[in-house]
Every structure is written in C-alpha cells, then in structure tokens.
Model the fold of this input.
Amino acid sequence: MGSLFQHESPGKHCRRRKARTVFSDQQLNGLEKRFETQRYLSTPERVELASQLSLSETQVSFVYNWLFTAM
Done:
C-alpha cells in the first residue's frame, strides 16, 4: 500500500498532489456552450452533460463553478 506522503528530506513530509485533469477542446467547447445557454444545471442535467462529454459529474460541476466565478 502506497504512502500518502513523499519524503523530501528526513523528517519532512509533503502531500502528493492529485494529477491535473486536462480537458479536450471538444469537452471545453461543450461545457462553455452549455454554460452560455444555461447557467445552472440540475443533478440529472449535470449527469447527462457529463455522460455526453465523457467526464465525471464532479468535473462538470468544477468547470461550471469556475466559469461562474470567472464572470
């Protein structure tokens, strides 16, 4: 079982970062177009959009929140 911590030097610990998600152009365009027409998504709408774009519901939610706060 892997450790959550990576040793930089004796006695020091730091958390490993989760790999950054890279969205395809098609995914980003789909998310942006949907956001332009519909600012809020219900749970079923979010699940449907995630399925259409091959993303997780969490990823759709994250991008929507980011787009909303960037306004």
